[in-house]
Amino acid sequence: MNTSGLAKRFCCYFVEPPKFEASAVIAIGAFGADSEFEDRGDFIVQLNRRSVDVPLFFLEEFDGKVIVTKLSQGIETEWNHYHVTDRSLLISPCDRIVSVNGETTNISRMVFDCNSSLELDLVVRHSERFRVILEKAQNRLGMSVLLGIAKTDMRVSRLEDGVVEQWNALHPENALQVGDRIVSVNDITQDSAIMLRELSCARVLHLIVMRIR
Fold first, then answer.
1. In the chain, what is the straight-line distance between the N-terminal and C-terminal CA atoms, in Å?
2. Which residue in 10, 41, 93, 188 has a CA-CA distance of 20 to 30 Å to 146?
3. CATH architecture for segment(s) 42-125
């Protein structure tokens, strides 16, 4: 496995998570029939915080998208607790922030508003999640990865001849692609360094992969 690009860091914007008392949450809305977001599994999140010092999720700007890389245990975690009975409304790592206060195309503005606005109207899109099972035997893996800056996932950066190519040919519906995020390796999660070691050493790999949509 080629790991020459492992030192590369993602471009990431975030709010440092100071301690705070819980803020009041929140409202949930539904999309109308004419909404540009309907039928994509998107959902509305409305957050109100008393101060910009109230922490928010860590964000990454990648490939023209704003992506949640890690939860801060701040107001978005409070949102999740409030909506714990409906998993479709839970904010999770690898979710994409599609809209911030009506802005959908100016990525810098979206990130700025997440960092500085007291009231946030967000449209969030869950990533596609699927499983991949690889058996390396004597074959090379044929995949290079980069460690995420939040150190909780790995991003597929290159595909070559090897076991992954064979998997893709046999399972086109779950084919690995450049840009996919590996969030679990043989049930190891939340630590990309340990996940990378398992990816390199284990003969059989059970992966959980997230694809940003």
1. 27
2. 41
3. Roll (2.30)
